[in-house]
Inverse folding.
């Protein structure tokens, strides 16, 4: 199995270097593709100085789903893995990928959060930190369909599964992997889980100069949630109830913060406004997206919809073939947040 590994990044040079070191040690035969957003921390120079990165794709958007699609576009392997820039794969990861893909179209594994380098292991965990290592993937039953979610920054796909999905939905700033899970369920594609396909995630420090992760904007959290559910399921009582239950739960949590003096009534009201605006916009856009793409892919904003993602590409594969390094190819296009860093938003 020829494996390509796509690593989206944005202003995460030091953690990206640790990620690439782990890939070089544990996935020595993999084609490594880094997709870099408009970073301002020297990421481009650091990556180009390494000889274990096959392709560096520069994009201009700060959207992780664009970064993922840009990497998938240039990958040549018959299997493609996505690894977050702040994840470090562990020994046995490569064999677990091969084993999982022998059994299912995609495979995922656990991600264990660890304190930042040099930080106190007993320090408080940031609000958006990942949960403890799961023993199995998260599952949900929606509108009679069993949905199995996967770790967005530790997953590998067979090439045909990505082709049928048409990659990730670039409308979404967050929640792209959860959207893909819904669409895979619609196609009756199984998700394999391999505990040995493990990775560690270095959590950002509150003062991280390289961007770290911040909690998702309230408006986009609910815009994305409403969009995903409307696009994939249409107007169904189940979808509406799930969206409402998330909103009510968050409203109660925010109200408790006000009572404890950790927030203010004006901030609570502003949050509520953002949630309502997000729900309205996401519902409208999700309905339009459902009408635009009635295929099983349900992806009107996928890989096939544009050809201008990369603004520059540095390809050592071309140099190895005697063609020289391709520099600013001016393909045009956008990137990572998972510089968001894609907190694959809570909810369906």
């Amino acid at each position: 199995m020829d494996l390509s590994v796509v690593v989206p990044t944005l202003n995460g040079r030091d953690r990206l270097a640790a990620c690439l070191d782990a890939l070089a040690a544990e996935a020595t035969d993999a084609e490594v593709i880094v997709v870099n957003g408009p970073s301002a921390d020297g990421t481009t120079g650091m990556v180009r100085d390494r000889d274990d990165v096959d392709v560096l794709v520069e994009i201009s958007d700060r959207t992780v789903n664009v970064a993922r699609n840009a990497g998938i576009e240039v990958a040549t392997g018959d299997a493609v893995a996505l690894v977050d820039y702040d994840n470090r794969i562990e020994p046995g990861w490569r064999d677990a990928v091969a084993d999982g893909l022998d059994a299912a179209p995609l495979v995922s594994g656990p991600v264990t959060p660890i304190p930042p380098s040099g930080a106190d292991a007993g320090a408080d965990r940031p609000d958006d930190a990942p949960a403890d290592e799961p023993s199995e993937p998260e599952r949900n039953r929606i509108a009679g369909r069993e949905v199995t979610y996967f770790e967005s920054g530790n997953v590998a796909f067979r090439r045909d599964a990505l082709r049928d999905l048409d990659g990730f939905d670039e409308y979404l700033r967050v929640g792209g992997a959860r959207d893909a899970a819904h669409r895979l369920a619609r196609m009756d594609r199984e998700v394999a889980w391999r505990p040995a396909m493990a990775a560690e995630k270095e959590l950002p420090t509150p003062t991280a100069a390289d961007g770290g992760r911040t909690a998702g904007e309230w408006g986009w959290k609910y815009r994305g949630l409403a969009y995903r559910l409307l696009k994939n399921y249409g107007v169904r009582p189940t979808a509406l109830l799930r969206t409402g239950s998330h909103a009510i739960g968050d409203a109660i949590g925010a109200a408790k913060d006000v009572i404890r003096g950790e927030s203010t009534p004006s901030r609570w009201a502003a949050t509520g406004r953002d949630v309502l605006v997000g729900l309205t916009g996401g519902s409208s856009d999700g309905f339009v997206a459902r009408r635009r793409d009635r295929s099983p892919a349900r992806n009107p904003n996928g890989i096939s919809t544009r050809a201008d993602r990369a603004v520059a590409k540095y390809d050592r594969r071309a140099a190895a073939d005697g063609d020289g390094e391709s520099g600013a190819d001016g393909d045009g296009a956008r990137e990572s947040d998972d510089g968001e860093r894609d907190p694959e938003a809570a909810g369906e």
